[in-house]
Amino acid sequence: MPTDDERWNAYLYRHYDPDEVARWARSLEFFRFVRYREGPFVDVDRLVVKLELDDEVRRIAARVESIEGGTARVEEWPGYLKMCIDGEPDDPYWRVVESAVESARAIEAQLLGPLRARIVDPPEDNEYCICPKYYPEIWTARTS
């Protein structure tokens, strides 16, 4: 009979290779992989970065569409802004794919450096978010 950890990992990595997710996580400085939550609402896997909201964040986020190789959906909420790169819509499971990770890397490299102090990490404070707070072993076991 599977343990709770085994069931959780089976869910977390369903449709993904754990080593690939770890490689993605380590290759991104600000964006985090967030696994969808099962439930009554349609949700998708995504890469997310969350920033404290101010005029500079708005100004820089407005440039996301002009980034070569990078595309993200920008969501403004009271007090913060999220940039999201959703899983592949043509995939039946809306999986995050390598091109989404490449897009996140492009946005990080071209836009997010000056906003480092405004990054909120984790962007979603729960175990669905692959981040150092919930999965420190991914970063401490760094081999690549």
Overview of the molecule:
By secondary structure, this protein is an alpha+beta fold. The protein has helices spanning 4-12, 18-27, 55-61, 98-112, 136-140; strands spanning 32-34, 46-52, 73-77, 80-86, 119-120, 129-130. Strands 1, 2, 3, 4, 5 and 6 form a six-stranded antiparallel β-sheet that branches.
Q: How much helical structure, as a percent, in the residues? A: 25-40%
Distance between the termini: 34 Å
Ranges with pLDDT <50 over ≥5 residues? Answer: none
The strand count comes to: 6
CATH architecture: 2-Layer Sandwich
The fraction of residues in strands falls at: 15-25%
Question: Mean pLDDT, rounded to whole units?
Answer: 86
Largest sheet: 6 strands, antiparallel
Global geometry? globular
Radius of gyration from the alpha-carbon trace, in angstroms: 15 Å
Order of helices and strands: HHEEHEEHEEH
CATH topology: Yope Regulator, Chain: A
The CATH class turns out to be: Alpha Beta
How large is the count of helical segments?
5
Structural class: alpha+beta
Number of domains: 1
Question: What's a quick, concise take on this entry?
Answer:
This protein is an alpha+beta fold and 144 residues long.
List the helices and strands and how they pair.
Elements: H1 4-12, H2 18-27, E1 32-34, E2 46-52, H3 55-61, E3 73-77, E4 80-86, H4 98-112, E5 119-120, E6 129-130, H5 136-140
Antiparallel strand pairs: 1-2, 1-6, 2-4, 2-5, 3-4
Task: Name the descriptors.
144 residues, alpha+beta, Yope Regulator, Chain: A, 5 helices, 6 strands, 18% strand, globular
